[in-house]
Amino acid sequence: NENALGNAVKLYPNPTEGMVTIQLNDEAGKNILVEVYDITGRKVASQTAETTGGSQDMELNLTEFNGEQVFIIKMTVGDKTGTYKLLKVK
Question: What is the value of pTM for the model shown?
Answer without folding.
Answer: 0.92
